[in-house]
Amino acid sequence: MPTKKELLTTPIQHIDIKQHNVVPLVDAMQFMAYSSRDLARAASIYERMLHDQDCGVILCLAGSLISAGLKQIFVDLIRNNMVDAVVSTGANMVDQDFFEALGYKHWIADDLYRQGTEDATLRELMIDRIYDTLIDEEELRACDDTCRIIADSLDPRPYSSREFIREMGAYLEKQGKTPEKGGVDSIIFSAYQMDVPIFVPAFSDCSAGFGLVAHQHNRGDKPKVSIDSVKDFYELTQLKIANPTTGLLMIGGGVPKNFAQDIVVAAEILGLDAPMHKYAIQITVADVRDGALSSSTLKEASSWGKVDTTYEQMVYSEATLALPLVTGYAYHKKAHAERKQRRWSRLLEPVTA
After folding, report:
1. Which of 224, 231, 257, 306 is catalytic?
2. Neighbours of 338 (CB within 10 A)
3. Which helix (H) or strand (E) holds 240?
4. CA dihedral in degrees (315, 316, 320, 324; nearest 10)?
5. How many whole angstroms separate alpha carbon 68 and alpha carbon 87?
6. Most C-beta atoms within 10 A of its C-beta, which of 5, 15, 16, 120?
7. Burial of 341 by CB count in 10 Å (0-12 exposed, 13-18 middle, 19+ buried)?
């Protein structure tokens, strides 16, 4: 049997859109067909979204994206004012982004171990497989426990996931796990510095959940930290009310997609006039035949009053292929050059009912 060290040798490297000017390639794709033309249109919509000075951009993340090498893209979008809020799965934010911020890595699985035939061996070695990447289970448990440590340090009350994730950013700063101190950059830390709120509606469904379970168990009958998902929904709705013109850049679907789309309806329920999301892009491989939310089209969302149909585009492509092109196009076209930093986190401290 190989050793853990022998299997975890080649780290995933995050692609840097700043180093690759894809504008000529994407411009050429608009004269092709099928997914190429769809992607070129999506890139132009994202560019338009960023030029629109009234538009607040909400990034939605589902699927295993950080482990796949896309982290630097999201960091760059945040640091270059190309995103104003993030709605994500817990795995992306905690198990993968925060995990790497703590100093750990994701590793490339070689041809034998990516197939699934050796998963029992990986289990014995406490190595977890994410498709064709590997992660050290013992390091992941350390990430879980760090979430417990953060929870233990807070006043015992209900928090939105946004509030808790901001505390995670503060923890990284206090521990010196920052680029300025020789650490790696991360989505959570860059968002902390740029006052970009991050929402994880299903926050317990990740390493943070294990940490919070341990926190609550250890507390017994004493007051505890808990996560208020309704507060999440209300906070994001407040952002829509404060900034009526919005655009969605969605990678995958699931809970983040639905959560972000639903704030239009939530604002209406509160008796306030909130226009549909003016812009919407979704990159997905989900098939409309499966009946899942991830595959429901943006045109379908318009029937619910959530997404306008003038500037919407579905891109049926795997994210690691399409996202560097869509975002790299807008970056190198300098669509963000005149954008003002919104610092939406400051609007939510505190939220008043």
Report:
1. 306
2. 10
3. helix 229-242
4. -20
5. 18
6. 15
7. exposed
Which tens digit of pLDDT belongs to each residue from 176-191?
Answer: 999 999 999 999 999 9
Give the phi and the psi of residue 56 in degrees, each rounded to 5: -95, 130
pLDDT in tens, 290-335: 666 666 776 677 777 778 878 999 999 999 999 999 999 999 999 9
Tokens representing 97 are: 């982004």
Token pair for 6: 């022998």
- Burial classification of residue 278, based on how many CB atoms lie within 10 Å of its CB (0-12 exposed, 13-18 middle, 19 or more buried): buried
Tokens of 177: 């796990």
Nearest to 190 by CA among 349, 74, 64: 74
| Coil vs helix vs strand at 135 | strand
Please tell me the pTM assigned to this model.
Answer: 0.95
The SS3 assignment for 6 reads: helix
The tokens for 50 are 């960023």
Beta bridge partners of 311: 279
Retrieve residue 316's tokens: 């049926």
113 token code pair? 């171990």
Please report where in the chains the tokens 């440590």 appear, as a residue.
149
Helix, strand or coil for residue 353?
coil
Provide long-range contacts, Cβ within 8 A and 24+ apart, for 34-40: 35/315, 35/316, 35/317, 38/313, 38/314, 38/315, 38/316, 39/315, 39/317, 39/322, 39/325, 39/326
The pLDDT tens digits for 89-120 are 999 999 999 999 999 999 999 999 999 999 99
SS3 97: helix
Beta-carbon contacts of 271 under 8 Å, excluding residues fewer than 6 positions away, are none
Between helix 207-219 and helix 137-153 the angle, nearest 10°, is 50
Question: By the 8 A CB rule, do 47 and 325 touch?
Answer: no
Measured distance CA(208)–CA(216) in Å, rounded: 12
What secondary structure does DSSP assign to 175-199, as a single string? TT-SGGGT----HHHHHHHHT--EE
d(CA 281, CA 284): 10
Active site residue 306: yes
* CA distance linking residue 248 with residue 326, whole number of Å: 13
Distance of alpha carbon 113 from the chain centroid: 27
